Amino acid sequence: MKVLLRNPKREVEIEGPISVFALLRRLDINPESVLVIRGDTLATKEEELADDDHVEIRPVISGGAGRARRP
Amino acid sequence: MRRAIDHFSMLRRDDRVLVAVSGGKDSLMAWDVLRSLGYDADGLYVGLGIGDYSAESLRYARGFAQERGGHLIEIDVPAAYGYDIPSGSRAAGRVPCSACGLSKRHLFNQAARDGGYDVVVTGHNLDDEAAVLLGNVTRWNESYLARQYPVLPASEGFVRKVKPLVRLSERETAAYCVIQGIDYIVDECPMADGNRHLGYKEVLNDLEDRSPGSKAAFVFGFLDRVHARFAADVEDERATLAACEQCGAPTPLEVCAFCRLRERAAAGARSGT
Prior knowledge:
The structure holds two protein chains of two kinds.
Chain A (H helix, E strand, L loop, with lengths): L1 E4 L4 E4 L4 E2 H7 L7 E5 L2 E2 L5 E2 L4 E6 L12
Chain B lengths: L1 H6 L8 E5 L4 H12 L3 E8 L3 H18 L3 E5 H5 L3 H8 L3 H20 L3 E3 L4 H13 L3 H6 L3 E2 L7 E3 L7 H11 L15 H15 L3 H25 L3 E2 L6 E2 L5 H15 L2
Parallel strand pairs in B: 1-2, 1-4, 2-3, 4-6
Antiparallel strand pairs in B: 5-6, 7-8
């Protein structure tokens, strides 16, 4: 299957079927830090991805300065 | 979000609300939910002159406002104040995230006061608060711990500031946007790469992966059981603030940090640094 990764944006080919959880482990990605999107639908960690799926692994971590400061 | 708003008494039904909108998932979700809950909520976008990233993030903020009929106020920092974050932070001797945070805090408050808004909403989520808390605890920064709370009440020169996403993780805010069809900027700000805040988030995500619920327990344990022990310090500091000689914002010095940043950035631009 084609898997779109970000930061930097690139595409890798992974053989399916494979569960979302196993895919993330294979790519050494912490499941807490991403969403997995199959087509335009969210996929849960337990879901099985097929060899012909198009999958995006989208990072969810954001943030520069977050410190609450006054003044 | 409703639960956080009620629990911390963040908003009144008749408040005029200004949502600080970056074009990212958190602030767009906050604006979307507040509108759907019936609040009178406008958006505020602050353009910081970070090249293509600022142009792209503005496109998402405008796109949301146009598609959903929201009123978006725009401030372009280079045009209005004569500096941008990359060159301004260099000239002022600050790291970019520090100059950015300082500029946004000042401009959010100023825009809310100028526009007659009762409250500023920011898109800080559970992960943001956990990362900030870890940083503050690691260094035992007591004055920052005193200020870390989802509601900063209004005081002389300051509009109330609230964080209604405090209960929600980044995965949840991103998932909300995907499910609701909200387009947002996915790429991270290029200036934030490698900053300490993101490092804390990685550490916390490793912990969460091994022990689910850790981030919520960390943040809400602090808010419910520890924060009050530090809070008295804030009152003391506010009592010593006076109006900035240049812009009138509250400051402990004669000239506020924002005006000093602006002056140093302008001087740097004139000397070509």
